[in-house]
């Protein structure tokens, strides 16, 4: 007895899980090859560092959509032409296929995210980095940035949460703030990315000279008057710096989309 397959179902299955629609129409090897292509491509974009920037993230998303869409269309066409035996493959294999791909996805995007993908996305919920980062911005960070440098915008862990600030100094630097201007190792860096209208409070205008401890960074928010940074929470251990912000990949303000940071 021969049967037909549902084209729409095959299309939706491949959209949900890459290659699943191909398995549905009996092209098991095709489905496995398409899944392998997707995951190998994602990992290659990650390990080469290409995915850790806004443009690279767009390329990654486009690649995933393209592979899924192509396999979904192929699945729908094959389902329309299908005249093979019903019930091939068995439901047990469908469960195994989907389960294995879910497990692989969790491993890549969670357990081994740093070594395999090298990036992570964040939503900005506060205004401590205005105007560089606005509330509602979606940023991408490089999880393998190397040692932090002065001027870097970094993601760090503090009190069980992750937050974003700018590195004002690293271990061994001498810092001070005079009339709102940052002095690092005797060099006047001006307002250091902070707009003048956001450097008005007493605690933003003056900071006595001090030494940044070895293995630590001193962080400041660009919106200096309303930023909970190292002036209040203290210096941050380098080991608690989890990534460097490379840009904005989405924002409520279209002009900010795609902004890159050096």
From TrEMBL:
<keyword id="KW-0645">Protease</keyword>
<comment type="similarity">
    <text>Belongs to the peptidase S26 family.</text>
</comment>
<feature type="transmembrane region" description="Helical">
    <location>
        <begin position="95"/>
        <end position="116"/>
    </location>
</feature>
<dbReference type="GO" id="GO:0006465">
    <property type="term" value="P:signal peptide processing"/>
</dbReference>
<dbReference type="InterPro" id="IPR000223">
    <property type="entry name" value="Pept_S26A_signal_pept_1"/>
</dbReference>
<dbReference type="InterPro" id="IPR019756">
    <property type="entry name" value="Pept_S26A_signal_pept_1_Ser-AS"/>
</dbReference>
<dbReference type="GO" id="GO:0004252">
    <property type="term" value="F:serine-type endopeptidase activity"/>
</dbReference>
<feature type="active site">
    <location>
        <position position="128"/>
    </location>
</feature>
<feature type="active site">
    <location>
        <position position="165"/>
    </location>
</feature>
<keyword id="KW-1133">Transmembrane helix</keyword>
<feature type="transmembrane region" description="Helical">
    <location>
        <begin position="58"/>
        <end position="79"/>
    </location>
</feature>
<dbReference type="InterPro" id="IPR019757">
    <property type="entry name" value="Pept_S26A_signal_pept_1_Lys-AS"/>
</dbReference>
<keyword id="KW-0378">Hydrolase</keyword>
<keyword id="KW-0472">Membrane</keyword>
<dbReference type="GO" id="GO:0016020">
    <property type="term" value="C:membrane"/>
</dbReference>
<protein>
    <recommendedName>
        <fullName>Signal peptidase I</fullName>
        <ecNumber>3.4.21.89</ecNumber>
    </recommendedName>
</protein>
<dbReference type="Pfam" id="PF10502">
    <property type="entry name" value="Peptidase_S26"/>
</dbReference>
<keyword id="KW-0812">Transmembrane</keyword>
<feature type="transmembrane region" description="Helical">
    <location>
        <begin position="32"/>
        <end position="52"/>
    </location>
</feature>
<dbReference type="InterPro" id="IPR036286">
    <property type="entry name" value="LexA/Signal_pep-like_sf"/>
</dbReference>
<dbReference type="InterPro" id="IPR019533">
    <property type="entry name" value="Peptidase_S26"/>
</dbReference>
<feature type="transmembrane region" description="Helical">
    <location>
        <begin position="6"/>
        <end position="25"/>
    </location>
</feature>
<feature type="domain" description="Peptidase S26">
    <location>
        <begin position="102"/>
        <end position="249"/>
    </location>
</feature>
<dbReference type="GO" id="GO:0009003">
    <property type="term" value="F:signal peptidase activity"/>
</dbReference>
